[in-house]
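Protocol step 4 of 6.
Sequence for tRNA N6-adenosine threonylcarbamoyltransferase (Arenibacter certesii) entered exactly as in the expression construct, tag removed. Do not edit the line below.
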Amino acid sequence: NKAIYILAIESSCDDTSASVMCNNRTLSNVVATQKIHEEYGGVVPELASRAHQQNIVPVVHQALALANIDKKQLSAIAFTRGPGLMGSLLVGTSFAKSLSLGLNIPLIEVNHMQAHILSHFIEEENYKIPTFPFIAMTISGGHTQIVLVKNYFEMEVLGESLDDAVGEAYDKSAKILGLPYPGGPLVDKYAQLGNPKAFPFPKPKVDGLNFSFSGLKTSILYFIQRETKNNPNFITENRNDICASIQHTIVNILMDKLKKAVKQTGIKQIAIGGGVSANSGVRKALADAENKWGWTTYVPKFEYCTDNAAMIGIVGYLKYKEHDFSDQDITAQARYIL
Ligand code: KG4
Ligand code: ZN
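Step 5 output, structure tokens:
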């Protein structure tokens, strides 16, 4: 088994990341997180692309240095073609194309959503690898998707959010409570100290396996406005209970759809990914589902949940084995369906 070295680049949103993989193992996975967006309470696309431009060369250098690999040893360059913010994608795409041309090695385009799912195939001690077919749920600040994964490259989207992503719902709820961006992890932290049944929020009615989170955000906003009118200290006095109630509602929404997906497909293997996979409520609900309903669940190592280049690298490796290479005239795609 020959050693294939893939340099992977990810720049779809606000993290600049580069990774060197040796076959299905990670040698390095460097992520430069852009702090600038915190001041604005969300990702500012123009600022993101400027920061990628500044970060990409040092991040790639660091990934090669940590892997102890010279660029002349690389077998191919993999990059995120989409979906994502166009200005951000362009930086990684142009960089990858130039490097592939300069080193005269193959170029491999990668779909970011496919990469979130295939990150489960990165070999890691103490992590099991899913067997086909399985159901993948990608939950992050940018995505909410349930996918039937038949094979490495045969995937079918069963449902997705019609409006806000689940991480966005967390972050927007956190903002209403006056918590700093990104507020998801804080809501999770306080939720663990509160009563999940204190304040019932309505669950959206959405057909099939699709999701909607914008209504929840609005009902939280109206609820907080109403309560703080009566009691200006309502949030501080009830912070944990409010967070626990929000978390309870969101986790229920996610689990209801997963249950539906299991029923619809007969598949009880569930793999999750994306930043919201870090959520304690989601993890607990999945562990309970293993015990109650005999599901087998897969939660990747945290560094592979959030946006990272190693997940692009594993897809690069899988495509390399198929000689599935891209031409130099390939372009970034902000909308790139699975
Ligand atoms: O995958 P990610 O790093 O970036 C993309 O959005 O692609 O996900 C970030 C999202 C944010 O919305 C953040 O608030 C949310 O994941 N998040 C969490 C937790 N940790 C991160 N949401 C709820 N509970 C958490 N523990
Ligand atoms: Zn992502």
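Step 6, annotate. The chain has ten helices and ten strands.
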